[in-house]
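Local shape tokens

___
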Amino acid sequence: MTEDAPSPLPYRVMEPGGAGALVEIALRLAALGLLLYGALVLVSPFITVAIWAVILTVALYPFYEWIARRLGNRRRLAAALLTLLNLLVVIGPATWLILGLIESVRRISEKLDLSNPTLPAPPASIKDWPLIGGQLYDFLILASTNISAAAAQLLPLLKPLAGGLLLTAASTGFGILMFFVAIIVAGFLFAPAPSLVRALRTFSRKLTLRRGDEFVALAGATIRTVSRGVVGISVLQALLAGIGLAFFAVPGASLITSAVLILGIVQIGPAIVLVPVIVWAWLTMETSSALIFTIYMVPVNLIDNILRPLVMGRGLKTPMLVILIGVIGGTLAYGILGVFLGPIILAVIWELLMAWMNENEPAAPAPSC
């Protein structure tokens, strides 16, 4: 007797490589793509806050552990104290900058007679300037006799600039608000940070079986190194510049110090504000005071070029040039957030490239005796 034939399946199996299988795969991919797109739309407003929160958590975690040990391993209390300290550190310079701006505007308004504004007549030599000399001279003559008419001519040209300045101010204010939110979010990440790192390592192992843990450690070390080398050196430079400006009673010292800090963080450098201040000192101060001021401010202006490579070269196997390119390129591409994202991306790519180049490298032959 022959065995009974197996009962038919309740559904039809798609032939491998058939049209039905291709349609089914396409529908699954489309549904997955729609779900991922919907999730990205939902979380996109929080991506910047999340990235800043992670950067702050990684950069400050050793300090958090130190505080927690001093408080008897009360981790929640340590996270609350560190969050409060971070808010004070950010609010203090921001308040200082706002008060400095108000004071600078007040001094300028006191020196200007806004009820009857006048401009001096331009020198006749301006007419001899190539290309723009004649038009510029006519405009300055008009401004010296009828400033309202001159302002009316400039108004159409200034409207686009004013719009751009308003957009810049609005985006800056929104960015500062998001940074405050990121500080608060980071406060909730300190305590569960070890479990989050374990989850990230598990995920990284799925991507790269052999080097997942190494890349997670590389990202953390890069964040801390950039924090010390970029932000830390910029804060030190701004502090030294502020001390010198306050000691010599330079007008607008708080505003200039804030500019030094911001220009240092965004990798432009403080020379564009400190060099004019040094020139101003030679024009307004006594020779001895100007000389002492210059001797002090020139090293302050150059201190980042000396200390930053020393600080950023410690603790990483990635070449210093790769880190610097990542910092500068990231700043140009993504703003201040790119200061951290740029070197992390380039450091991981560099390590992947080195691993790929050395993967099949034959071992060097043993030296013959």
About this structure: The chain has a mean pLDDT of 76.
